[in-house]
Amino acid sequence: MSPKIGINGFGRIGRIVLRAALGKGLSVCLINDPFIDLDYMVYMFKYDSTHGTFNGEVSASGGRLVVNGQEILVSNEKDPSAIPWSSVGVEYVVESTGVFTTVEKAKQHIAGGASKVIISAPSPDAPMFVMGVNHSKYTSD
Fold first, then answer.
1. Which of 69, 85, 101, 135 could pair with 114 as two cysteines, CB 3.0-4.6 Å apart?
2. What is the pTM of this model?
């Protein structure tokens, strides 16, 4: 069974993470963005100005983003510790807002129920791994 993923921030990085995850058959369970409403999420994902039109079905239904039949819960929390990651079993959160880039700030996602946080922006104090450079040094500790 694939790990359950959550995305915090549905800007350029959050949208490409969703596309990549869906392309690999991964399960994205929850997307949080306090500044983007669901209808605009649908529009931005379907008609991405950088990556082009999404080749699939995208809609909104019952407070969820639906992509190719997969329902993804959407929330609009500003406080990462209030995002209900555990309610849908999210294990890994991709922090793509560019705001919660320190270990202390990223740990707020753990309070919401996530097991690990992947910060998409440079961090002053979190370990940084780059594919093809030092990814082999990553351990699950």
1. 85
2. 0.94
